[in-house]
Amino acid sequence: xxxxxxxxxxxxxxxxxxxxxxxxxxxxxxxxxxxxxxxxxxxxxxxxxxxxxxxxxxxxxxxxxxxxxxxxxxxxxxxxxxxxxxxxxxxxxxxxxxxxxxxxxxxxxxxxxxxxxxxxxxxxxxxxxxxxxxxxxxxxxxxxxxxxxxxxxxxxxxxxxxxxxxxxxxxxxxxxxxxxxxxxxxxxxxxxxxxxxxxxxxxxxxxxxxxxxxxxxxxxxxxxxxxxxxxxxxxxxxxxxxxxxxxxxxxxxxxxxxxxxxxxxxxxxxxxxxxxxxxxxxxxxxxxxxxxxxxxxxxxxxxxxxxxxxxxxxxxxxxxxxxxxxxxxxxxxxxxxxxxxxxxxxxxxxxxxxxxxxxxxxxxxxxxxxxxxxxxxxxxxxxxxxxxxxxxxxxxxxxxxxxxxxxxxxxxxxxxxxxxxxxxxxxxxxxxxxxxxxxxxxxxxxxxxxxxxxxxxxxxxxxxxxxxxxxxxxxxxxxxxxxxxxxxxxxxxxxxxxxxxxxxxxxxxxxxxxxxxxxxxxxxxxxxxxxxxxxxxxxxxxxxxxxxxxxxxxxxxxxxxxxxxxxxxxxxxxxxxxx
Length: 579
Hints:
The protein is 38% helix and 17% strand. It is globular and about 65 Å long. It is built from 20 helices and 17 strands. The chain is an alpha+beta fold.
C-alpha cells in the first residue's frame, strides 16, 4: 500500500527532478516507510511505501530489464500467478511484482488476471517507443489520477500531488462543484479540478511517447441472472466465496483488524475472520456522545459473541470542530459524506495497533441493500422512482448550473431495474464516494483499507442472483442476511435496522449563527449565493433536508479554503473559515 506518481514526457522534454521531489513530498502521508525513484530520459516513476508484504525486500520501483513498475495496492492471487510464471526471475516477495511479468504476455489486458485492489503505473522502454500503462482495479478501490500538461502526462494517487507540481491551476469546474453540493461527490472521469482526470475503475490507459493513445476496460460486473439458482445453492456459493475472500484479504506481514458497525456487512466479515481462526479479531466501532442513534451496543454484543477484541471510540462535538479541517484536508477529491467523520477518527485510533483494516464496503451495492433499490423496483403508480433525481440543494439554495449536475446519473440498460440502479451505484457512488472516503481517511493515518466484499468471485455470485435473492419485501441484502442468520450467534439480521447517524444537524444548529456567518462570507460562495440565504439555512439545520444542505455548504467552504485557496488547516473549523 503506497502512493505513486510520475511523468511520461513528450519528445523534446525531460522529467524535472524538482517536480519529482515535490510529488514524493506530497505523497509522504501515503507511504512513510520509504521512497523510490526510477528515471529515464523521457519518463520517471515515483513511489512512497507503506510496508505491508515483504517488509525487507519489497521496495519499489520494481524493475525487469527496461520495464519498471510502481504500484499501490495488493494482488491477492500473487501466489498462483508466481506458480504460473515459474520461469520468471522474481527478485522480491512483493505481491506487486507479478504484474511486471504479466505485461509482456498480455499488454494492456494484463490486469484481467489480477485479483486484488490496485493502481499501477508500468513503464516499458523495451521497444522504439516509451509506453506508460496506468491501470486501476475494476471496482476503483485504489485511486489514480492524471493530467495532460505541456511536457506530457503526469499522474499520481491523489489530485493534490498533481497540484503540488504547480503545473495545474487551483481552480474548479462549476458543474462539478454543484454536483458535489447536490449529490455529495463528483462523478465521472473529470474531477472538480479542470484538467485533472480519473483513471476509471477497471481501466488501463496507454500513454505512448507522452501522449494518451487508447484505453482498455475490465468490467467489475458482467454476466446474466442465473434464473435456476436456488437459495440453498446460492448460500453455499456465498459461503465459499466469502470465506476465500476474507482469507486472502487477511494476508499481511503486519497486524490487521476491522471496522465493525454492527450492520450486516461488517458482521459477515467478522464472522468469516473468526471462523478462519487467526487469533481474536481486533475490531473498532464509533459512537457519538450525544443522543444520536448508533449501532455500538449491537456491535459490542456481536464482538463478545464472536470473541473479538473490541474497542468503542466515542467522538464528541468538540473533537469534530477541532479536527474537521484536517479531515477535509485529506479529501482533495471532495466527498461531502459526513461518514468521513467517524472513518477518520476510527483510523486514527486503529493506527495505534494495526496497519491494515478490513471493512464492509460494497455489500449494499452488490447484494441490493439500499432503500433506493426497493423504490426503483416499484412501478411508478406505487411510488417507484429512480435515484439521483433530486439533489440536496433543490428547493433550499439555488445553484448556477441547474440540473446539469445529473448528467452522470443516468442508469444504463440491464436485465432488471434493480440491476440497472446497482450498476449505476457501482459505476459512480461506490468508487467516487465510499471508496474515496475509505482511502483518504485511512491513508491520512498510513493505514491500508481492504474491502473483502469487493472481490471478483463475490461480485460474480452477486451479479448472478435473481432479484428475489437480493430484495424480499422490506429487506434488501436478503441472501447476505440469511448467511449472517446461519453463521453469527445471536444475530437478528431481519430485525428492523436501528441505523447509525452522525449528529451534524444538531451540532450545526447549535452553532448556526456563528457558522452561517462564516460560511456566507467565505470565498467559496462569494458572488454565487446570497449570504442571507446561507445564514438562514444554518439556523434551520436541525431539519432533515436542511441538515444535509447546511453540512454540504460547510464542507465545501472548508474544502475550498484548504484546497483552492491553499489555506492552513491547523486550526479548528471557526479559525479555518475566519482566516
